[in-house]
Amino acid sequence: MAKTLRKTHGLSYTRHFYLGDPKKSVATSLKWQTRDLELRNSRGEVYFAMKKARAPAFWSPLAVEIAASKYFRKRGVPKGFGDGKGSENSVEDMVTRVTESIESFAKARGYFKDPASARAFRQDLEWLLYHQRGSFNSPVWFNAGLHHRYGLTSDSRSYIWDFKTRDVRLSQEALERPQVSACFIQKVDDNLDSIFDLVRNEARIFKFGSGSGTNFSHLRSRFEKLAGGGTSSGVLSFLEVLDRSAGSVKSGGTTRRAAKMVILDVDHPEIEEFIDWKAREEKKAKALIQAGYDAHFEGEAYRTVSGQNSNNSVRVTDAFMKAVEKDGVWKLRDRLSGKAVREVKARELWTRIATAAWECADPGLQFHDIINKWHTCGKTAPIRGSNPCSEYLFIDDSACNLASLNLLKFVDEDLNFDLASFRAAARCFFLAQEILVDLASYPTEGIAQNSHDYRTLGLGFTGFGAFLMRRGIAYDAPEARHWGAVLTALLTGYAYELSGEVAKGVGPFAGWKKNKLEMAGVMKRHRQAVNGIGAAGLPAELKAEARAVWDRNLEFAAKTGFRNAQATVIAPTGTISFIMDSETTGIEPEYALVRFKNLAGGGVIRLTSPSVEAALRRWNLDEDRIVRVLAWADEKGSLSDCPELTPQQRAVFRTALEISPDAHIEMMAAVQPFVSGAISKTVNLPHEASIAEIERLYRRAWDLGLKAVAIYRDQSKGFQPLVVKAKEEVADRLEANDASPVQATLGVKADEDAGRWRPASPVLPLDMPRCFECGTQTELSGGCFRCPNCGTVIGCS
User: Does the annotation mark 787 as catalytic?
Assistant: First the structure.
């Protein structure tokens, strides 16, 4: 077992961000603003309202709305806190609730050398959260501190690490030690008890706002015999049960869709049926829509069919990929004996995967051998599964809490990158995540034990697309990939550096000694990859710093080890990007230059990304030209053929669907060698893309060393008729408003003399589902549909 932390080994923490009076709250250093919130759906109906919501004055209206509607605790807050009526009503309430509980637990467990260091850490963390430089994953905001600060209780039971008995025990109070991890991987064994235990455990995970993934390949197929003499019901029959369960549980109590991943190995006897599952159900949904049933993502057509509550992935091996290459046969194997029960043509199975993805975007691929090549704990068990968006990859029955840094907050007005602050922020958030590991509770004994023993974390970043656009760098340019690689190398390097320092004082994670050689090998591969980062367009000190931090990590790997088996992922950062006022999510490019926003008093306004104007000003264009370009973007929704810009300038403003699919793959390949886990990202394809093109892209992802990949072909879903109608409704409402054509999503002042908006060509692709809360068309981010109006995320948390 890992050692209990002792004060004698505590860290000394020096403030980097909050430089005010250490005796005063960070909140006192901010200018605050009170706002009345009223969120309406596309029909003009109020679905959320709050009087006198309090937030930092520099937070955008959207950020305040998302924090209040999604993360403020709405019930049970005692008198003396919040609005006095049972609800939090301030960003200060939310941040204090979380950071106070983290500080209290850290002091009790001896993370810090003295109380002054603990307070300095908390104040820096609060400063970062208030200034939107980073954010925890949603379950932290949902659950952390509810018992510690408010004394709230729950009748849910959970498993925690008991520091007195030095073992996992069942706790009767789920909120005393809250669920704070966003990502879970659960195993399932080939028996009914295990299958229906998974139904219950998934529901608990969804209830508290997290997602779960499972590899179902241990389950016998419908071709195999049972001990009693009958034949198994098969994997698909049980997947449908789990799908229905997931569809009935609100994620975190506020979001309709649970987040779920289903994986099947490519040699499972039911692999063909699994590949076709969602494509077959999609055809049923489209037939129902044609018959007049509601085409809404939550409507009758999609609720009638199965498989809509999960992302599906096929786990493929190098051996299978080579069989495809040689047009050889592929053996499907009995689950118990391992004997081949059937043979299929590998290339036909490969085409079947691509065909299903062409039809409905599923299944994605996970590359088993590449994943396990980068596995830090291969002596413990292989990696078989992932979380719902495929960025967290580790052993079965494990969990990971996430946090992301907002890249745009680490550049000044001249776009100089603040390396010192980036390092300090990465270390501060990673330390907070490490503290959360044992502060948390878990749904099963096995997950609680593995979380304590391996302490996997997922630090990442968001806003990368906007970061590039503001620098005037095209997402598909080599320079963009160099930036992606070096920023990720630094982030992971700093996280492991902090992990090594903690391990030096209190000991490495419990499984380190057993896996010392494997982890050292992975650290060496990370360090070797730094040498391959291109220099074009990068400040020289960034690559030099990446080399230096990874050299320090090699010393930790050889001597004292690390406190955490994994350190980083690149998550989709759905809802949390909104509260950070991040213009783009995760590592994605800009999805659309123009979006729609419902107004509090009714109506809709059309908003242009502020990064467009920022990039134009970086090129020192004259004011008249800037106004003309912005007006063009607002009217057309794209700058791909704007005559005011050169071809090189237009390339900077290419959105997700205007960038070639290969550019998406190449960006992932540039970043992957520096991530502990993987990258949640959508490879966008135009509607005209062929099945052969998907085959080629999936093959290229394997060739370039990606761990996982998913594609989305535009207009491959059945929501399109409803969305076209929604566009007509939006155009009518915009025509009725006196809306300026040049407005910024994050509060940039509009040009009052620019005139009324005139309906023009569609801004977003036409097949995204409408948000089930506000009715706005969603956009695709990391495999999830995200509402740009209210922050609701469908499919992931």
Answer: no
Tell me, yes or no, if 387 is annotated catalytic.
yes
Q: Per the structure block, which two tokens stand in for 169?
A: 């025990």
Of 391, 588, 613, 773, which residue is the catalytic one?
A: 391
Catalytic pick among 183, 360, 377, 389: 389
Q: What is the dihedral of CA 635, 640, 642, 644, to 10 degrees?
A: 130
Check pLDDT > 70 for residue 467. yes
Q: Which two tokens stand for residue 694?
A: 């998907």
Q: Are 347 and 353 in contact (CB under 8 A)?
A: no
DSSP for 137-152?
A: -HHHHHHTTHHHHH--
Listed in sequence order, the residues at least 6 apart from 62 whose beta carbon sits closer than 8 Å to its beta carbon are: 578, 581, 597, 745, 746, 791
Per the structure block, which two tokens stand in for 398?
Answer: 């494990």
How many whole angstroms separate alpha carbon 126 and alpha carbon 700? Answer: 43
Over 257-316, what HEC string results?
CCEEEEEEECCCCCHHHHHHHHHHHHHHHHHHHHCCCCCCCCCHHHHHCCCCCCEEEEEE
Distance CA 48, CA 584 (A): 25
Written as six digits, the tokens of 324 are 């495809």
State in Å, rounded, how far the first CA of the chain is from the last one: 31
Dihedral sign for Cα 503, 504, 505, 510, please. Answer: positive
**Residue 391 falls in the annotated catalytic set:** yes
Indicate the residue type of 74.
Answer: K
Q: Are 459 and 403 in contact (CB under 8 A)?
A: yes
Q: Give per-residue pLDDT as tens, 244-255.
A: 888 777 655 555
- Identify the residue whose tokens are 């801004």: 763
Residue of 312, 387, 406, 564 marked active site: 387
pLDDT digits (tens, 9 = 90+) for 683-698: 999 989 999 999 999 9
By the 8 A CB rule, do 42 and 775 touch?
yes
Whether omega before 539 lies within 30 degrees of 0, making that bond cis, reads: no
pTM over 0.90: yes
pLDDT band at 375 (very low <50, low <70, confident <90, very high): very high
Q: At a CB cut-off of 8 Å and minimum separation 6, what does 530 contact?
A: 489, 543, 546, 547, 550, 674
Q: What is the 3-state secondary structure (H, E, C) of 77-126?
A: CCCCCCCCCCCCCEHHHHHHHHHHHHHHHHHHCCCECCHHHHHHHHHHHH
- Residue 520: CB atoms within 10 Å: 16
Distance, CA of 380 to chain centre: 27
Alpha carbon distance 276, 442 (integer Å): 34
Q: Which two tokens stand for residue 521?
A: 């090998």
